[in-house]
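Q: Okay, next protein. This is [histone H3]-lysine(4) N-trimethyltransferase from Cynoglossus semilaevis. I've checked the sequence twice, so it should be correct. Can you predict the 3D structure?
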Amino acid sequence: MTGSIKGIERFESPGKGRGLRVTKAFKVGELLFSCPAFSHVLSVKERGYYCEFCFTRKEGLAKCGKCKKAFYCNVKCQKADWAMHKLECSAITAFGEKWCPSEMTRLVARILAKTKSQKERCVSEKILLIGEMQSHVEDVDNENREMNEGNIAELHQFYSKHLDFPDHKDLLTLFSQVACNGFTIEDDELSHLGTAVYPDVALINHSCLPSVIVTYKGTSAEIRAVQNMKPGDEVLISYIDLLYPTDDRNNRLRESYYFSCDCQECKTKSKDKKKLKLRKRSDPIEPEVVNNMVRYARKSIREFRACKNIKTPGELLEMCEHSMEEMGSVFDDSNVYMLHMVYQAMGVCLYMEDVEGAIRYGEKILKPYFQLYPPFSLNVSSIYLKMGRLYMVMDRNSVGVGLLKKALAIMEVTHGKDHLYLAELRKEIAQK
Ligand SMILES: [Zn+2]
Ligand SMILES: [Zn+2]
Ligand SMILES: [Zn+2]
């Protein structure tokens, strides 16, 4: 670890390699540790809403006078960010509309700039940690390899003025390291704000029954217990969305992180039956019919993802409705594949500012989400928040407040009682 953290130590986790475990007891909601970002980058779509340096959200941020694309709380934040922003400032102006590196490329450019300047000072422990992050470069499949090659091309195109690059092989390693170990910073409704690397958090292994959860305060990651932990317990987070059944979770883990999970839930599959609940029919449904429908569902999910940025909102809604109708002959409304499509449809409605439509879809999600996710889940708190706020917009305040209070109860554990999001939420509740 970058330093010693009280109550936490590194150890060799059987079958998993390095990991973290606690040396003292932690209660649900207790902070294990907080970790500043080694490097972070704000999403292009959030420019102007959040400070590029500290990720504070507020009105009236001050613009970078040169590129007019980066925004800051004040001169102090701007000065502190310059070592990173200067990698992009002049290029943004020079390339204009054609400036379009991926968020991954932007983050890697920052890591390269930072490790360079730290090496100049002296050998930093943090560089070693970045070097230590697992890369699995030999496991990378064609699709991921192509993406990494694309990112390297962008790096040369947009950042060559300010950076000396290591050779191609080392760059490939760095990109796969960051792909496996990068964290998405999200807000209270799980909107994507940016990407960052946290060397200490990258040491935490995965479980589908996580003992801790990661949330963000500004650009720092905070790790809190979501289960009571006793000395010797491993610190475990979930790398993936836990809604889906065991096979889907493990496919996802293999595709993105190159391992399969052997946690208790993956062994017993205790929630799979509920997650794949079938429609009640007088005649029993043949296993083959179910299997075919699962295949259809997975294909629909992939197709929707591929079309998300191409098709119109109307066409996307139609895709959701069509696949729900198909699946509805076999699957119950609470089946996770149905829920996946309902959630996407809700997202499309939100995008179109169709509040009533979003509420109609959201209502179908609330109860099954609560039943299928672990007790302290950001997926559950964020749906309560979204729905609560939508009901407030419709002046249905008592329903809205009820949902916001449910979100608050989860977030007191996941975010800590003094987080800014909770202060804002208490204010929203008090106003009505
Ligand atoms: Zn700031
Ligand atoms: Zn600038
Ligand atoms: Zn598992």
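A: Here is a summary of the prediction. The domain at 39-183 is CATH 1.10.220.160 (Annexin V; domain 1). The first strand starts at residue 8 and ends at 13.
Q: Noted. On to the next one.
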